[in-house]
Design a protein that fits this description.
single chain; mainly alpha; Cytochrome Bc1 Complex, Chain D, domain 2; 2 domains; 10 helices
């Protein structure tokens, strides 16, 4: 009797674990889809709706990936969650992003120092030679003025620590900054 219960539990837990394995490309595409479709209501950290923290895996109504994908596509009648005009594949990439994000701590660091960050951004980092921020700088690389409202802190930190992870053609000076040279 105990063996059959253990087998059922094992099979159920295996199914739950399997639904959380996604290809890195799906997670990356899901991040873009999240930013384009969800960030305006849910925020970059996924915690802008009281009682919900999407990027930490805290949902009100769902348990399975199928449920989450369905809610993304169909919305929740009688709530502020509208149906999204997207296909199943795009909804699934958002689910992949949400699941992968929940596996990463919300903040890898202990906060930051805005003044020091600005000094590095404008000075040693040489970021203003390519990036624009607050109306200053060229447009050779993405404008970073509103990056905090579009990306999670952990994603911003990752792109600073390892800029080559974001794009293969990152200038050498960005990679040298990462190493502290």
């Amino acid at each position: 009797m105990h063996t059959s219960i253990a087998c059922v539990f094992f099979l159920a837990s295996t199914a739950l674990l399997a639904q959380h394995e996604y290809a890195p490309a799906d997670v990356e595409n899901g991040g873009r889809n999240y930013t384009n479709n969800c960030v305006y209501c849910h925020g970059p950290e996924g915690d802008q709706i009281p009682g919900i923290n999407l990027l930490q895996g805290k949902f009100r109504r769902t348990l399975s990936d199928d449920d989450i994908a369905r809610i993304i596509r169909e919305g929740i009648p009688g709530t502020g969650m509208p149906a999204q005009n997207m296909n199943e594949g795009n909804a699934r990439t958002i689910v992949a992003y949400l699941r992968a994000s929940a596996a990463v701590p919300a903040s890898a660091g202990g906060g930051g120092n805005a003044a020091r960050g600005k000094t590095i951004f404008e000075g040693k980092g040489g970021c203003t030679s390519c990036h624009r921020a607050a109306g200053t700088g060229p447009r050779a690389a993405p404008d970073l003025s509103d990056i905090g409202s579009l990306r999670r802190g952990v994603e911003i930190e990752k792109s600073i620590i390892d800029p080559g992870e974001i794009r293969a053609d990152v200038p050498a000076r960005c990679l040298l900054l990462r190493r502290g040279d």
